[in-house]
Structures are given as C-alpha cells and as structure tokens.
Write a structure and sequence with these properties.
This protein is α+β, with helices and mostly antiparallel strands and 185 residues long. It contains four helices and ten strands.
Length: 185
Amino acid sequence: MPRNGFLASSIPVAGPIFNLLNFKTMGRSVNHLNDAFKVVFFDYPTIENYNEETGQWEPTDEPEDFDHVLDLIRESIKSEFPEYTDCKRWQGRDVMIFLEGYGTEIAISEYCGLATLSIRIDESELKYTLSGNEYDCEQWEEAEQAERERIEKWIIQNVSRIFAGYGEYTKIGTMSNGESIYTKK
C-alpha cells in the first residue's frame, strides 16, 4: 500500500488521470456521522521507526494503534474544551462516537489510511434539555429550534479549535459507484 494509505482507483482510466491532477481516489469512502455539521479528513497516523544511519524518524506503512490515536485526539480536544466527556458508542460498524458535550457528539472513523473526525448536534441531549418543560406542540418546536440554533452557533464558533491540526484533505465528491475523490489542501 502506498505511504498515503489510499487504495488505487477501481476505475482504470480515471484513477491515473486524477492522480496526475493531485487527486486521491478510494474504492470505498471513509465514513462519518450522519447529519454531521462538519467533517474533516486526514491521514491516519503511522508508526515511525528510528533510522540509526540517518538519525531521523521515518514513517512506515504500519498504522498507529487505534486506542493510542484516539487518546491523543481526545486529550487534544478536552484540553481546549474540558466539559467534553468520554463515551464509546457506535453509529453502524465504522463510526465511533468518543466524546459528547456542549450539546454535540464527536466521532472518528478510519478506512485504508484515511480518517475522519466529525461533529453533530446530539439529538438525545437536545430532547433531554427540553424534556423537563411543559410546552404545547408549537412552543416545543420553537424551543427545540432555539436550542438547535444555539448549539449550531457554538459549533461554528469553536469547530476550528476542536479540529485544529486535522483536515489535510478536502472531499471533492463521490462517484455513482461509491468511489470518493479527495485533494490535499
């Protein structure tokens, strides 16, 4: 597998053309939270070995331990936003929600060397926040919309700090066969 961890294109003609244009293609896309407010794509870290001849640390194709990477990301986010709490829930088989707080959920997913971090509004928290109040249907909808807007505003103000250091790639699109195309920022 190449250093960048991406699979070669399953489309024999398009793959080489995209690679010449500095695009990367994957046979299947890495996943992220449904209804994510923001998704960032980055190279999943690989283990580095020390080369005694050169005196340098050199990357390998071996991926770093998932729990170790998750701990580093978790610590980085919680150092800026201490009210986030650890959790471990799965959305499907590929997306792990590992932090919750501030009315949001943050998740990670990895596939073939490409990883995502995504953030969305925690719908269960939204309903819990409003559940103790007596509202009629119209008031409930207004209160829910106001709370949703408050959380979205918080995400917009803080997402660049939450995902600082990540987001090396931009997803260009997904073809009808499910193959996604990314370009390095």
